Amino acid sequence: MIELRTPTQIEQMRPAGRFVASVIGALAEKADVGVNLLELDELAHRMIKDAGAESCYIDYHPSFGAMPFGKVLCTSVNDAVLHGLPFDYTLQDGDLLSVDFAASVDGWVSDSALSVVVGTPRPEDVRLIEITQRALDAGINAARSGNRLGDISNAIGSVARAEGLKVNLQFGGHGVGRTMHGDPHVANDGQPGRGLKLRPGLVIAIEPWFLHTTDEIRFDPDGWTIRSADGSRGAHVEHTVAITDGDPIVLTARS
């Protein structure tokens, strides 16, 4: 069911957005050569506890997961691009790391993701992250009252296709509110002028993710970590966005 939030409720969602943005920022600063993925998860865990927030991940168990997620953070490295389950892995020079984090503050959820290169960057990884960020920016710019859901999807996909990237439509953005994942699904490509008409009060996570050379994926045995089918690297960025009568509000904007 698609729910619209009042202006008062959108204001009530701001603390969750600020908190999620602060955690994503802290993780990006912490990520470095020699840092273990479990250290990043522990940092997010401490920040949740200190803020009196609640994790959206730790008990999450959709049909595709082999078990409850059990961690508070997604860490996807190199050819892993989504839902990476943190494990005992120490970041190496040149790793492409994506972190995805969602939490609830006072009953309202925000969700955000960021990709960074650890240590010495590969030019092709920097370019992939830049394209993915431009696609997110384009999607946010299209998230305006009176537009259609397909306008957001097309804005994202157009950036990718112009750069020669293929777009996977199995996973994308989603509604956000009292829970992490709700309606509508926000695909990362689509037809402009099609789909749900956007109205003030709709709050969605917009999250483009692309792989260097494919749009095909495979799952790790844990049922969570999603990797490229051909071993190529991926990038993933995400913001929680509220549609208003004017400009969209990026609730998870980082300072």
UniProtKB/TrEMBL annotation:
Residues given in the record as substrate binding sites: H83, H181
GO biological process entries: proteolysis
Binding site for a divalent metal cation 1: D100, D111, E238
Residues given in the record as a divalent metal cation 2 binding sites: D111, H174, E207, E238
Record keywords: Aminopeptidase, Hydrolase, Metal-binding, Protease
EC number, UniProt record: 3.4.11.18
An example Gene Ontology molecular-function term: initiator methionyl aminopeptidase activity
Ranges where the Peptidase M24 domain occurs: 11-245
Membrane-traversing stretches: none
Gene3D superfamilies: Creatinase/methionine aminopeptidase superfamily
Cofactor binding comment, as recorded: Binds 2 divalent metal cations per subunit. Has a high-affinity and a low affinity metal-binding site. The true nature of the physiological cofactor is under debate. The enzyme is active with cobalt, zinc, manganese or divalent iron ions. Most likely, methionine aminopeptidases function as mononuclear Fe(2+)-metalloproteases under physiological conditions, and the catalytically relevant metal-binding site has been assigned to the histidine-containing high-affinity site.
InterPro entries (alphabetical): Creatinase/aminopeptidase-like, Pept_M24, Pept_M24_MAP, Pept_M24A_MAP1
HAMAP family: MetAP_1
Protein task: Removes the N-terminal methionine from nascent proteins. The N-terminal methionine is often cleaved when the second residue in the primary sequence is small and uncharged (Met-Ala-, Cys, Gly, Pro, Ser, Thr, or Val). Requires deformylation of the N(alpha)-formylated initiator methionine before it can be hydrolyzed.
Family assignment from sequence similarity: Belongs to the peptidase M24A family. Methionine aminopeptidase type 1 subfamily.
Protein's recorded name: Methionine aminopeptidase
Gene: map
